[in-house]
Amino acid sequence: MTGVAISRYVPADRDSYLVINLVLATVILLVFIYSGIFSPGKDNYPVVCIHEKVTGQPCISCGLSHSLSLMIRGRIAEARTWNANGPAIFIFFAAQLIMRILFSACRVKYPSTGKELIIYDISGSTVLFLVAFFPFLINIFSLSGIH
Amino acid sequence: MEDQINNTGQGSAGSSPGAGYTGSRTGQNLGIAALITAIVTFVFAVIPCVGLIAIIPGVIAIVLAVVGLSRASESGSRGVLIAGLVIAVVASIISFSQLFVAGKIIEKAKRGFGGDIENIIRDVQKDILQDLEDAKISIKVESNGDKVEIKADTGSRSRIEELEELERTDSLNSGTNVKK
Question: What are the beta bridge partners of residue B140?
Answer without folding.
Answer: B149
